[in-house]
Amino acid sequence: MTSMQGRSEGQVVNAETRASVQTIARLIATDRRPAVLANEKGEILIANAPAQRLDLDRAALTEKLDWRMLCKSALRAGSVSVSLPLDGGATEGEVVYLPLGSGAGFLLRLAETDQEATWLRNRSRAATLMRVAHDLRTPIQSLLAAADGLLDSGAASAEDRETARKQLHNAASLTLDHINNVLAVIRGEQSVAGMRPDEDFNVTEELRTLIAMIGPIARARDVELRLRLDPIEDVWAHGPVRFVRALFQNMIDNAAKYGGHDVEICLSARPLAATGEGRDQIAFSLVVSDTGGGLPPEQKTRLLESTGKGETSPTGREGARRASAGLNVLGHALRQLGGTIEVLDRYEEEEDRSPERKVIGTTLRATFTLDAPETREGAADAALTPPVADSRLDGITVLVVEDSPASRDWLRQMLGSAGATVRAAGNGIEGLALLERPDLHSEIDVILTDMTLPYMNGVEFATRVRHTGPAGAAPGWKGPIVGLTAHVGDEIRRACQKAGIARVLEKPIRPVALRKALLEVLGRDDATSSADAPAAAHGEQKSAAGDPLKTAVVTELIAQFGLEGAKSFMRRAHGEAESVLSRLRADGVGPDTARLLHAATGASGLTGLKAVETSLRAMEHDVAEGRTDLSEAMKNLQTSLTQTRQAIDQLEN
Known about the structure:
By secondary structure, this protein is α/β, with parallel strands linked by helices. The protein contains 20 helices and 17 strands. It is 46% helix and 18% strand.
C-alpha cells in the first residue's frame, strides 16, 4: 500500500477526512483486486499492491480512460462501469464515488480474474441488451401507427401525406438505430460501460423529437398530448444525452399508452450558480400527468425501488392496472443522471382533501441537474443585429411555430431585428399551450406557422387555434394566421382557407417579403418602396457562376445586419452543417439524421450558402431513399464547406 503522490495532495487528506481515508485504505489493502483511490484530476491518493503491479498511476488513468468524464458520471450515479485497456486486452471494473469530507474521491476497482471480467462483461452486456431491446418497442409501434396513418391518408392533402411520410421515416430510422445498438452489443463492439462522452445538446429539442415520435401512437389511441415549456425558449445543457432521452421516452411513452386520453407534459429549467471550480448548472424537472386511473401501489413501489430514490404519496387506492415494462429502464436512466422521482396521485378535484376524493390519474415528477453548456461558437450576438430600416414591425407580437431549430432561430432574429416581439414554438402542441396562457393569448397579433409540422400539421394547428372549447376555453384565437410551405397548390390553399389561414407563403421566402406580408395581413402595410430590394449603399456582391455563395441573399444579409453581422449568421449556418457532417462520420445515419440535415439545409438556404445547401439537399435525398452509405456525399459536403468558409472570410463591403 502506498500514496503515490506523497504529500502533494496532503491538503485533501486533512484532519476532517483522515478517519474516512484510513478506513478506505484498510479495505483497499485487503482487496485482492487491483484498486486505487484517486481524485478527479487522476492524482493517486491510495493504491494497493495489485494496482501497483499493473502500473495504475495517474498517466494510466488519464491516458487510457476519459477519467474526468468517468468521475462526473460516478458523481451523478454513485458508480459507473469501466473497461480499462491493458496489454492488448480489456479488464472490466467500476468507478465508485466516495465523499471525503468537503472533497471527493473515486475508487477504481478492477476484476481479479479473467473469469470475473467475463462475468462482469456479460452481465453488463445483458443489461444493456435489455434496455436497448425494450426501447425498440416504442419506435416499432410508432412505425406501425405511422404506416397505418399513411395508408389511410389516400384522400388527404399533400401536407398530410408529407407529415405522415416524415413520421414514418423518423420512426423507421430510430428503429434501425436501436437495432444497430443491439447488434453492436452482441458483437462486443460496445464497451461494457456503454459510455459516450457528455456533450452539449438542446434538451428542449430532444423532448420535441420524442413527442413527435410518440405522436402516431398517441393518435392511434386517441390520446391528447399537451406540452408546456418553462421557460419558453430552448434550453441547452452539457451531459449524457442518451440517458435524458431514455428518461423522457419512457415517462411519456408509458403515459401515452396507459395514461388515459389526456396527458400533460411540462419541462422546466432553472439556472444554478456554480459551486467551487465547477460550471454553472441547470436544474431540470419533467412532469408527466395523465388520466389513466392512478398507478397501483405495487407499481409505485417497483418504480421507486428501481431508482433507489424519491418518495411516494400515501394512498390506499387501487388504480387501474397498467403495464410496468420500462420502469427498470427509466430507473437506470434516472440513476445515471443522479436524479429523483416522485409518484403522485392525480385527483378529480385537486383542492379536495377528503378521504373519498377520486383518483383519476398519476403524476410522475423527475428532477435532475446537468452542467450548463460550453459557450457555443457562432451563437447569436445581439450587437451584430442592428434594427432593420424597412418594413418595421414595431409593436407587433408574432407567434412563430417552426419545427426546424435553425429556421426558428433565424425567424426570431429576423423578425426581432425589425422590432417585433417574437414567441417561438417547436410544434403545434407548444403553440396551443402558449395560446392557452391568458397573457400571451391577448398579446399575440399574428401567427406564422410552418405547414409541415410533427404531431399535427399546420392546417390542423390553425383549425384548433380557431376552436373555442367548452365555456369559452382558449384558444379561440381570432387574429390572422400566415402559413409557410414548400408545396403551394390549389389543394393546400383551399385547406388553409377553410382553416382560417389568411395567406400562404412559399419557401424559401426573402425576409423583406415576409415582413411585408405580415404587415399586409395586419392592415399595417407601411413598408417603404425601398423594402422591395436591399439597400444599394452596401453594394452588391459580385460572384462567378461557381461562387459557393448566393449573391442576392448575401447582399440582403449585409444590408440588414452589416458585414460582420451577416458573416456571423453565415458562420452559424456553416458550423451547423459542419456539426452534421462530424456526427455522420462518427455515428453514421441515425434517428436524428434527417432532422439535422433538414435544419442545416434550411439555415444554409436562409444565409446564402449555396454550395453547402446543394450538398445537404443531395444528402437529404439519399437518406429519404434509405441509403446508409453517404461516403461520397460527405466528401462533396466537405469540399463545399471548405470553399464556402473561404468565400465567407473573403467577403468585403
